[in-house]
Design brief:
Layout (H helix, E strand, L loop, with lengths): L3 E3 L8 E2 H15 L9 H7 L7 H7 L6 E2 L2 H10 L3 H12 L4 H5 L4 H6 L6 E2 L4 H10 L19 H26 L17 H17 L6 H16 L6 E5 L6 H16 L3 E6 L2 H19 L4 E4 L17 H8 L8 E5 H8 L4 H4 L8 E6 L9 H14 L3 E6 L9 H4 L10 E2 L4 H7 L3 E4 L6 E2 L1 H8 L4 E5 L3 H14 L6 E4 L5 H16 L4 E5 L13 E5 L3 H8 L11 E8 L10 H15 L9 H15 L1 H4 L1 H8 L3 H7 L7 E5 L6 H13 L4 H7 L3 E5 L11 E3 L13 E4 L5 E2 L3 E2 L11
Parallel strand pairs: 3-4, 5-10, 5-11, 6-8, 6-9, 7-8, 9-10, 12-18, 13-18, 14-16, 14-17, 15-16, 17-18, 19-22
Antiparallel strand pairs: 1-2, 19-20, 21-22, 23-24
Helix pairs in contact: 1-2, 1-9, 2-5, 4-5, 5-9, 10-12, 11-12, 20-21, 24-25, 27-28
């Protein structure tokens, strides 16, 4: 009797199990095909749904059973009969996530395992011989790997990454084939269109034309023009080096965004690499960079050449341990991104947490990092407490996956100071090649700013600060917290002759609103009209604006230097003015290490003295980072994470490696200027539910917030966006904000303190 993998699609066709296993094995093998590929992807693909040959599972597809585990028997076969630990981990985890080694060991005794199943499920069939007989009767066979990737039960950090790569290939293949079945028509399965290829040579030609145009419109005698030309030449020269680790140290405003892309494309041409991944810490820079790259390439390669992928909050918290055939679970996984695009622009949270994740949707894309150029912009924002395992993971990726990793910043952290802590995790350590031949000379050429430092304990309140800022016709003030930005904006507006000259920018504004504010700022700066912008740190790294005067609340030294990059950026003045102040109200952002790094900046100010404190000097920057690492003791702070790696505990590693500890939610806001889009999204959410198309369409109106507590009144204004075909289940990460009056034209989303809560 024919066995099936999935229930009927809209054409009433069930998914053949034999066809599914064969296709998933083919795809997984294809995804891992290159010079560094692990050999066990095909084995995992053929055995991943072995338990679906069980009678109970076939009854499950008819709605007559539930609560079944169809994956463990395949994992048992891979480990016991085919001696493949990698395939066993992969198969066991492809629905419930990669387990700890201790949990995986329990399946060696299937009967005992089923009696004490960790998720309270039943095996679809515990008779492995019967299942393999049906597998063989279906015309399938599987070979034992000649050389398993793991020959020991003790896995290193690098081994665990290689395991995630196989896991990624299987889950992506599984999701792709499952999606093709449910999207099928009368002619059979309908696969999504594969992403375009990089075509690095043609892309480089297009980029070169753009750079030639920019050069033709620049003053050849200007220091910034000379520095940008030098940086481009350095990038082209370095691109001929072998794949590996690189740093790019260049001052703000030197054109790193395009220079990095020049390196990446030339490097891809040289080494036949397949993908460029740009990793950026802040949404504002992500949006800006995506626009630059789309404007360059979309007309030539089409709309799918550049993929913009934001935060991990998008598909819901992936912690389901229930029957994997539930419709909601399937829909959520099929909506996850797999980075099938030649240029991917993503966030640090998305990239790095995925490298340490154990969940199928988060890991799905990882196999596409092989044979890629991975560019980390503003790398000084990497969290201190995770620096050692992060460096180790990226070193392994560069040396073992035939990829290159580039760390770019104006304030290159002294990561070489951590070499002795990285070496025990990966033998390749952290020894990058610097792309820029003379970084200090380049920094000296771009001394465009005079710094003004506060004396110790010299605090400034908002009215005094506002009075100082008002002396300048064009000024930017960057503060550490959204509540500070709101308080200062309100103070400035009260005193302003022209309220429209005072603008606000924070992530309480949706992407479309932020873009509109930045366009207005740039226009007023160009027209030499009065403009004061109050912003959070979302504006300070990489955002292309140029003010003659900037104020910055006391912060980590690297953040202050980044703020200086928004001052006299184009070198039109002899010197811009950057004033650092200490606010009376001094709480700090919850980001790990922010307060500690700020205190080290204050300590260095006292030690060196405000007169001699020169952020242009690389020696000062290196001293700052050395003190930060010595005081921060990154390996000690990552002790629980390192223990989890030692114990090969994938779930605990994922739990411990979190750039942002708090979960977040995505809210579609009623931004007046895009009211028609808001109405469309609200209607489509109600009628059609959540889809990948809806998510991408919604991004311009999205605001991300830390998940509110259950008792907070904001829930009264949020309408959950449900999954397609699962109206009875509420999506937990996507919401539409219903109270239009709470979206302020300047401050963005400002929920009132009291709302009527919905009653369930």
């Amino acid at each position: 009797m024919k066995k099936f993998a999935h229930s009927e699609n809209r054409w009433g066709v069930k998914h053949s199990l034999r066809e599914h296993l064969t296709r998933v094995a083919d795809l997984a093998e294809e995804y891992l095909l290159n010079g560094t590929s692990p050999p066990e992807g095909r084995l995992a693909g053929l055995l991943h749904d072995l338990g679906k040959y069980g009678n109970l599972f076939q009854r499950r597809l008819e709605g007559k059973e539930s609560g079944l585990d169809h994956w463990t028997v395949g994992a048992w076969m891979a480990m016991a009969q085919y001696k493949s630990l990698a395939a066993a981990f992969t198969i066991y985890g492809h629905h419930v996530g990669l387990p700890s080694f201790q949990e995986l060991k329990r399946i060696s005794k299937l009967a005992e395992f089923e009696k004490n199943h960790p998720y309270g499920l039943r095996l679809s069939d515990s008779d492995c011989e019967r299942l393999m007989a049906r597998f063989t009767e279906d015309g399938l066979s599987v070979d034992k790997p000649a050389k398993p990737i793991f020959t020991s039960n003790t896995l290193s950090l690098g081994d665990m990454l290689d395991q995630r790569r196989i896991f990624s290939a299987l889950t992506d293949a599984d999701f792709i084939d499952t999606e093709a079945h449910f999207n099928g028509d009368e002619n059979g399965k309908v696969y999504r269109e594969s992403g375009p290829t990089l075509q690095a040579e043609k892309a480089l030609e297009i980029l070169q034309v753009e750079l030639d145009c920019l050069s033709a419109n620049s003053d050849p005698g200007n220091a910034i023009t000379r520095v940008r030309k030098t940086l481009l030449n350095n990038c082209l020269d370095a691109a001929s080096n072998s794949t590996g680790l690189f740093t790019l140290t260049a001052p703000t405003g030197s054109g790193k965004t395009l220079a990095m892309l020049v390196f990446a494309l030339q490097h891809a041409v040289k080494h036949k690499l397949r993908r460029v991944v740009m990793v950026i810490p802040y949404l504002t820079i992500t949006e800006q960079t995506a626009k630059i790259y789309r404007d360059l390439f979309e007309a030539h390669f089409g709309p799918h050449y550049v993929l913009e992928h934001h935060s991990l909050a998008g598909m819901g918290k992936e912690d389901s341990k229930a029957d994997a055939e539930q419709e909601q679970e399937r829909q959520r996984r099929l909506l996850s991104e797999n980075w099938d695009a030649p240029i991917v622009i993503t966030t640090s949270v998305q990239m790095l947490e995925s490298l340490f994740s154990n969940r199928p949707s988060s890991c799905r894309k990882l196999h596409r990092l092989a044979e890629s150029v991975i560019l980390f912009d503003e790398v000084q924002t990497l969290p201190l407490h995770l620096s050692v395992p992060t460096l180790a993971a990226l070193s392994h990726l560069a040396h073992q996956w035939r990829s290159s990793v580039v760390f770019s910043t104006a304030t290159q952290p002294a990561f070489q100071h951590l070499q002795s802590q990285v070496i025990p995790l990966v033998e390749t350590g952290w020894q990058p090649h610097e792309i820029v031949s003379q970084p200090q000379q380049m920094a000296d050429q771009l001394r465009r700013v005079t710094y003004h430092w506060p004396e110790p304990n010299q605090q400034t309140d908002w009215p005094e600060l506002a009075q100082n800022i008002e002396q300048q016709a064009q000024a930017l003030c960057i503060v550490n917290l959204k509540k500070h930005a709101k308080a200062l904006w309100e103070t400035l507006v009260e005193e302003a002759e022209d309220e429209e000259s005072v603008l606000h920018l924070s992530t309480n504004l949706c992407a479309a609103h932020r873009q509109q504010v930045l366009e207005e700022v740039r226009q007023k700066l160009d027209d030499k009209r009065p403009i004061t912008l109050v912003a959070t740190q979302c504006v300070e790294a990489g955002v292309d604006i140029d003010f003659p005067a900037v104020w910055r609340s006391i912060a980590p030294l690297d953040a202050i230097i980044q703020a200086a990059g928004r001052c006299n950026r184009e070198g039109k003045l002899e010197k811009g003015e950057l004033t650092v102040f200490i606010p009376e109200d001094t709480p700090y952002p919850p980001m790990a290490g922010y307060l500690q790094a700020t205190k080290i900046t204050e300590h260095l100010l006292r030690t060196v003295g405000t007169t001699n404190f020169d952020p242009h000097q690389s020696e000062l920057i290196q001293r700052y980072y050395r003190e930060l690492y010595d005081l921060g003791r990154p390996s000690e702070r990552a002790k629980e994470l390192l223990n989890a790696i030692k114990n090969v505990d994938f779930p605990e590693v994922a739990q411990q490696y979190r750039l942002i500890k708090q979960d977040s939610i995505n809210i579609i806001v009623p931004y007046t200027e895009r009211s028609s889009l808001y109405k469309e999204l609200l209607t489509e959410a109600s009628e059609q539910g959540l889809s990948q198309k809806w998510i991408r369409k919604a991004r311009p109106l999205t605001v991300s917030l830390y998940r509110p507590k259950a008792e907070e009144p904001i829930w009264g204004a949020l309408q959950p966006v449900n999954y397609l075909r699962t109206p009875e289940n509420k999506m937990t990460d996507w919401f539409v904000y219903l109270r239009k009056e709470d979206y302020h034209p300047n401050l963005g989303l400002v929920p009132p303190k009291q709302l009527h809560l919905w009653m369930a």
